[in-house]
What does this fold into?
Amino acid sequence: MDITEVPQKQFKGKKKNNKMQRKKSTPNQENGNVSDVEVVETKPVTTQEPMLPPTFSLSEIKNKQRRHQMFMKLKQEKRKQKMQVKKTRKKERDALGDKAPPKEVPKTIENQRVYDETTVDPDDEEVAFDEGTDEFSSYFNRLTNPKVLITTSDRPRGRTVRFCEQLATVIPDAHVYYRRGLALKRVIPQCVARGFTYLMVINEDRKVPNGLVLCHLPDGPTAHFKVSSVRLRKEMKRRGKEPTEHTPEVILNNFSTRLGHGIGRMFAALFPHDPQFVGRQVATFHNQRDFVFFRFHRYIFKNEKRVGIQELGPRFTLKLRSLQKGTFDSKFGEYEWVLKRHEVDACRRKFVL
Amino acid sequence: MGEKSRLCRVWVGSETGILKGVSPAKKQAFNFSETRSLSRDQEVRVLCWGDPAETEVLVGSVNGTVRTFSTEKGVFTETRQCGDADQGVFTGLAVADCGLVTCVETGRLRVWREESSSPVVDIDAGKSVCRMRQNASQKNRVATGGKENGLKIWDLERPDTPVFSAKNLRDDWLDLRQPEWLRDAAFLPDSDKIVTCTGHHQVRVYDPSTPQRRPVLEVRYGEYPLTCLSLAAGAQSVVVGNTHGSLAVLDLRKGLVRGCLKGLAGGVRGLQCHPTLPLVASCGLDRFLRIHSLETRALEHKVYLKSRLNCLLLASGALGEEVGGEVEEVKEEEDEVWQSMEQVEEKSKRKAPEEDDEEVTQVTNRKKKGHK
It folds into this structure.
């Protein structure tokens, strides 16, 4: 009876299930064949057999228990097949030894990235000129030394205050000031007059730091980041001793596009030029899928091949919200890049940094 | 160089001082400056056509020089000094019958003849002028305006007083003065009207032909300063861009938003609509030149030009030579078809309404008779 009913149901099948049916088509056919064999035993071969639908989905079985049973069977079979394939592959590899073909690289959304035409070519004269004469050029030409002012939004609470203090230990020549309810537009001229090159404002929401405004002085640009997953030193496992006062080395990873270059230069200009290698400390800004991960490590060369690292903290993640030309002016400033979440197309393999 | 420059239909001035030519049909972009002799004080601020045939592009730089670029030869042919760099950067450049019209940020509106090195006309248009625009039909009329400096229309032949100066809006309900900040202006063709956009996200239409000196229409768009505007072909709508990189088409009859053009990532610096086709080109701080269709509002072309872009100039005529040729051919074919059809249609058309009219008249006659 089952078998005779199935084809009718198939025609009634809902359109919603179409995709599912197609996906499952291959293993189901096998199942169908198995059941066919059973039928053949009971019934002589009928003309109905070619009527059997090419796609048959388990979800069409009405009996719940039977459906469940069949589904478990299917799953087990699939798993078995997978394991077998794996085994045979491994055997082949072992047999071939060194001649084995290289392993396939798994597909990730980073290595499947859509090509960005703004990717910077290091030989490009125009970009080189643009970067050579931009706002950071005085730092990269070694004319200025960075001096950073760190402040917060009004009335910071415990975590944000500690985060600021720890940031100040990471960045040399950083000064933490209490905001005192001052407007940023009034703070900036005072900072310029006192020779600061950066203003860093950490925003707080419900006692959690969630935003960072990084403003290069005296004439911009200003970047606005979202801050997430902040981990302070105390919350870190297996952390090293307190960092020393040596200027750290800086690693910038994966800032490849024109916008990314600008952001990378911005981070680089936070730290003084010549790192003191005696301190063996590294600050890393690692960009992956437009998220910038910050880590602070101490390293040691154990022998010629092996290096040990020890995280010193804090760690946090940044995501660029906007880049504005000029010093902080959210109302009348001109934006060089703004994250427009609802306008950009939904391609997940496109990255801006 | 000449071959390249003849291909280009869009000219873009960049912050690094490079004049760029783009051919959207062939998807090519060229730099027309030597990359070795670049400097920041050559930054291009304004572009305009030097002659009506569009064979010369005038390039106004930050250091006060106006260079002439020949699109036929593909080289800079002439350089002249129009004011000093310390008088502020150029905010407007135009060619009138009486000579070359320049305007700088400090408000000096000047006219230069070819022979003399000193200006023929020198007008003080007030402080911090943001933009100077020329009336396309009356070449000797220009409009200026800026921050706390209302719209003024000048006749270059009578430089003593402005032809029209706008009045600020009335104080608001708290008796506070309304801030003024004109960012861009455009003359509506075939009328005295002028449309402006402000840094306080308003678009205003002024009508100098009436005694009213305040705007006759005000539209607000978005919440960020509008930087530039351009009249669409047909002059019924205007395209405005703001510092956040949103472009919108506004209708000038009722002051409603017709639609937004998507795809921009950074603030708009230059915007121009094609004089005949429904196309709008925009460039800005995100270093892309984008061409949108005004009919479908879809992005047609997108070109990465490596530097921040300040201003742009669209050639009239089709965007690409090849495309243009095809279009013309199609038109000709269509014309032939229409020509062959005309005779038949005219007769039928003429006959049909006449008959109708007769019937109608008969009916009315009858009715009248009935009434009588």
Summary: Chain A is about 35% helix and 25% strand.
